[in-house]
Design goal:
Elements lengths: L7 E5 L4 H17 L2 E8 L14 H21 L7 E7 L2 H8 L5 E6 L12 H9 L4 E5 L12 E5 L7 H14 L2 E7 L14 H25 L5 E6 L3 H9 L4 E6 L8 H9 L4 E5 H4 L2
Parallel strand pairs: 1-2, 1-4, 2-3, 4-5, 6-7, 6-9, 7-8, 9-10
Antiparallel strand pairs: 5-10
Helix pairs in contact: 3-4, 5-6, 7-8
Length: 294
């Protein structure tokens, strides 16, 4: 796959408050990375045929999209991005698909997600989940629950880490982010006993202790390998015996950004990542294992 000749941040906008939060984050990211910014709006062809048989004029939707992007471009310029580094695109198609395609030549894709309550949290947001499951670069998801006004000023980047070699790519990106910002990197390993069989039996205490020790050693090995490559990054490793969603959501209140690896699977985004997406108090950086292996 060809890589971009220049650094590029892509942000999806739709005229909503969610899109505005994503835009502000994306502009800051482009400035920090000295990258170009591509502001994208997708005219969802699924809404052309509305309720009660109403058929919407795609030309009007296209014009509305152009207006949304025009406003976003002005915001980006007002925040200090030079005009020649701000680009635009209005495309017809599913928003997740459009952003996934644009991710092929991007360093980051930034999307917004509204804050929801109750049962809505189970579904998070179709666009953010879809992009996270298919993007070819890391995806930054900015929720309405995120402390956007404080983002970048806490001086702390986090990553939820498993004792798995596949996690090394996301860990490397978290190190690079912490180094770029001059921030402390907090590595969170939340450990739970494995369950076995139909009745969720757990191994005996001696076996559990051995498993716990082995996993902690694997996490330390992954961290130490990259710590040597980034000696200027201060690293703290947090080992806890707790559910990863609860732990990561709690820690997110004190982080500028939380990195998570997205496992490949039937649903694309696993239960732990979905749980953190639904409740996180800071922006999330989601990266698929296949992306960091390319």
């Amino acid at each position: 796959m060809s890589k971009p000749l220049t650094h590029r941040v892509v942000v999806g906008v739709d005229g909503s408050d969610d899109g505005q939060r994503a835009l502000v984050y994306a502009v800051r990211a482009a400035l920090a990375r000295e990258a170009d910014l591509l502001i994208a709006h997708a005219v969802d062809d699924a809404v052309l045929a509305g309720a009660w048989g109403v058929v919407y004029d795609p030309t009007l939707l296209q014009q509305a999209g152009e207006s949304i992007v025009d406003e976003a471009v002005e915001t980006a310029r007002s925040m200090g991005l030079p005009a020649e580094r701000v680009h635009r695109e209005v495309a017809m198609g599913n928003p997740s698909g459009v952003l996934a395609k644009l991710s092929e030549t991007a360093d980051l894709v930034v999307v917004g997600r509204r804050s929801v309550r109750g049962l809505e949290r189970l579904f998070v947001g179709s666009t953010s989940v879809g992009v996270a499951a298919s993007a070819r670069c890391p995806v930054i998801m900015v929720s309405a629950a995120s402390h956007v006004e404080h983002t970048g000023f806490l001086g702390r980047i986090g990553i939820g880490l498993e004792p798995n070699p596949k996690a090394s790519g996301a860990l490397r990106m978290a190190f690079e982010e912490a180094e770029r910002r001059g921030a402390t990197l907090e590595v969170v390993h939340a450990w739970q006993p494995p369950t076995v069989g139909l009745f969720s039996r757990t191994p005996n205490p001696e076996k559990l202790q051995e498993l716990r020790r082995r996993d902690a050693e694997h996490v330390q090995e992954l961290v130490e390998r990259l710590r040597r490559e980034h000696p200027g990054v201060e690293v703290e490793v947090l080992e806890v015996d707790a559910h990863p969603v609860d732990t990561l959501v709690t820690r997110s209140a004190d982080l500028d950004l939380l990195w998570l690896g997205v496992h490949e699977g039937g649903l694309g985004v696993g239960a732990v990542v979905r749980g953190v997406m639904a409740h996180s108090r800071c922006p999330l950086a989601l990266v698929r294992a296949c992306v960091v292996q390319e």
